[in-house]
Amino acid sequence: MPKELKEIIERTCAVCGKEISVRIYKKLSHKGCNYRGGHYFGKIPFYTKREIACTSKQAVPDKRIGWWILPKMTPYKYEEYWECPKCYWRYKK
Question: Among 4, 13, 26, 66, which one is least packed by beta carbons within 10 Å?
């Protein structure tokens, strides 16, 4: 059963800066991914320098996400983290 193409989006690789053409398909089942052409790692929070300085001076408990330890701060924006296949597989060999 062929996948049905939903849309094509353009993203930028976070490592090399190359444009990535990502094909998004309609989800047919709960297994497998529904996109091809890049590797998506989620949204990365961005903080202001003032927020980082205020948090580092205070005794604020940290938040643990997997192996990352993030201080409890309020991000001002989130950016999607995409990698092209060449950059993704460079360190996997």
Answer: 66
Residue 43 CA to chain centroid, in angstroms? 4
| E strand or H helix that includes residue 63 | strand 62-65
Distance between CA atoms of residues 64 and 90, nearest Å: 28
Q: Which two tokens stand for residue 79?
A: 């950016």
**Predicted model pTM:** 0.65
Of 1, 8, 6, give the one whose Cα is nearest residue 26.
6
Q: Tell me if residue 43 falls in helix, strand or coil.
A: strand
In this structure, the number of other CB atoms found within 10 A of the CB of residue 20 comes to 19
Mean pLDDT, residues 33-60: 77
Comparing 67 with 77, the larger pLDDT belongs to 77
For residue 81, give the H/E element and its range.
strand 77-83
Residue recorded with tokens 């998506």: 40
* 42 pLDDT above the threshold of 60: yes
